[in-house]
Amino acid sequence: MKNILANNDFSPQEQEWLMTAQQMCQEAAVVLKSRFRRRDLNIEDKGSAFDIVTEADKGSERIIIDTIHARFPDHAILSEESGDDHRHARCQWVIDPLDGTVNYSAGLATYCISIGLKVDGETRMGYVYAPTLDEEFFAIKGKGAYGPYGWLQAKSTTELQRAVISTGFPYDKATNPDNNLDRVTLVLPRIRGLRRLGSAAMDLCYVAAGWLDGYWELNLKEWDACAGELIALEAGAIVKRYRNDHGICILAACPGIAPTLLQMVK
């Protein structure tokens, strides 16, 4: 990151946001990696067997929140495990301390830490770090997106039949018929391949990197989408929050297929 910051037009404040996010993720990653693939994760249900939390989630969150309180005491925080601190502040950090908890608890490496920063309600910074894969993605609004190999740019795919698309399923999939299966049935026959990564933030970053052509999902929360959404947008992807009646319903795709894919999943 230091080389990118040195060679781009980031303000001192933006550099501070990014360097703080990087430091928090590196410190939280130590906790996550130390417990990865261990059997003593103390997994708890958060309302159902599909929605879980581990001691690793909580440890990662404590590190991030403590750092924000120390460096930015006047900033607000919205985090998956602790919720909204209900502070009235111009700046709000939006945190998922472990996005992909089901993957993590199963010993699968597709999980990450996702940190966004909103100023006056607008996302200005997004930072995502996948500890086991050692993949870093970040963006500042209006100044591009960057990843493991430098500047990110969404793909130029124009045909669905050549596209690899990812999706996910809501936690209420067993009780709510609006569970995305009908969209999968519609989309799957028309694309090259369908994937299910299990981490919304990583899905969005992989669209930004050009490793996926598109992604859609229903019933996300702000901490799932905030950072990755900005990273995908800054990489040139089309990103839409296309419904408001089932949590955050989001689509991100390269421009050549986004309109068609959106019509299929709406």
Tags for this entry?
single chain, 266 residues, D-Maltodextrin-Binding Protein, domain 2, five-stranded mixed β-sheet, 8 helices
Structural account:
This protein has 266 residues and is α+β, with helices and mostly antiparallel strands. It folds into two domains: 2-151, Fructose-1,6-Bisphosphatase, subunit A, domain 1 (Fructose-1,6-Bisphosphatase, Chain A, domain 1, 2-Layer Sandwich), CATH 3.30.540; 160-265, D-Maltodextrin-Binding Protein, domain 2, CATH 3.40.190.80. Helix content is 34%, strand content 29%. The strands form three sheets. An eight-stranded mixed sheet has the order 4-3-5-6-7-8-9-10, with helices on both faces. Strand 11, helix 5 and strand 12 form a beta-alpha-beta unit. The mean pLDDT is 95.
Tell me the CATH architecture of the largest domain.
2-Layer Sandwich
Q: Report the count of strand segments.
A: 15
Largest sheet, if any? Answer: 8 strands, mixed
Counting helices, strands and paired strands, the structural category is alpha+beta
| Domain count | 2
Which strand order spans the largest sheet, edge to edge or round the barrel? 4-3-5-6-7-8-9-10
* Radius of gyration based on Cα positions: 18 Å
Spell out the CATH superfamily of the largest domain. Fructose-1,6-Bisphosphatase, subunit A, domain 1
What is the element string, with H for helices and E for strands? HHEEHEEEHEEEEEEHEHEHEEH
Low-confidence stretches: none
* Helix content, binned percent: 25-40%
Number of helices: 8
CATH topology tier name of the largest domain = Fructose-1,6-Bisphosphatase, Chain A, domain 1
Query: Per DSSP, what share of the residues sits in E-state strands of 2 or more residues?
Result: 25-35%
